[in-house]
Amino acid sequence: MIVDLWQLSRISDFNFNNTKTSNEETTVTVDANYSTPIITFDNSGKVIEVRTATPGEKFTVDYLEKGSRADKVASYIGQLGGDQAIYRIKGTNNWLYSMGVTPASKVTAHNYDLENYSLVKFPKAADLYNGNGVSLNAKMKNGGK
């Protein structure tokens, strides 16, 4: 079963031991033809350069994002006109512009401006609670039954 987390704010996690998560990740290699900065965003969404990646340097990435934040990075770098997207470096809040790296495998692109909810698949039955921690007297069953 899939649940919209905007409607459901708390989930009992006591029965989710050993639950596997599906993370998309790949390795990207910095292209020698581009000066590819590693960037982050401040609290107001402004692009901040952390450092410049070295050509041939490899990173494990776990998210590919399109939308206004990717457009800000393209504008900051001055490389508009392509398929603006940014890869998140796994385990950090740092990002790489997609046009400056070559991925080892494809990662699904997400549009930051259009995605306003998260979906969760429950592999086991789970108790449900509202935002105040009060039981909803409902149980998500394995397989959505």
Structure description:
The protein has 145 residues and is mainly β. It has one helix and 13 strands; from the N terminus they run ββββββαβββββββ. The protein has one helix at 68-77; strands at 2-4, 10-11, 26-30, 37-41, 47-52, 58-66, 86-89, 95-97, 101-103, 109-111, 119-121, 126-129, 135-140. Strands 3, 4, 5, 6, 7, 8, 9 and 10 form an eight-stranded mixed β-sheet that branches. Strands 2-12-13 form a three-stranded antiparallel β-sheet, with no helix packed on it. Strands 1-11 form a two-stranded antiparallel sheet. Strand 4 and strand 5 (47-52) form a beta hairpin. The longest helix is centred in the middle third of the chain and has 10 residues, at 68-77. The radius of gyration is 19 Å and the shape is elongated. 20% of the residues are buried. Mean pLDDT is 78; it is low at 1-22.
Provide key terms for this protein.
disordered N terminus, 13 strands, 145 residues, 1 helix, eight-stranded mixed sheet, mainly beta
Short account of what is shown:
The chain has 145 residues and is mainly beta. It is 7% helix and 39% strand. The protein has one helix at residues 68-77; strands at residues 2-4, 10-11, 26-30, 37-41, 47-52, 58-66, 86-89, 95-97, 101-103, 109-111, 119-121, 126-129, 135-140.
